[in-house]
Design goal:
74% helix; 2 helices; mainly alpha; elongated
Amino acid sequence: MTKILEMIGLVLVAIMSLGFVGLLQSIGIPIGASNPLFWGCAGGTLMIIIYRKRKRKQEGKE
């Protein structure tokens, strides 16, 4: 499960970076941090980080 989450997080960060730099502009995605794709990927990555942190904390208590 953790490997899958790491791969999903890596893909989200890559898409977020490409969208921020503007390499996805050719398919109609606006450049910069004002587009919803950037914030969606950032939010998804943050959710994965928080989930993994809570999971590690629960495993440490048991």
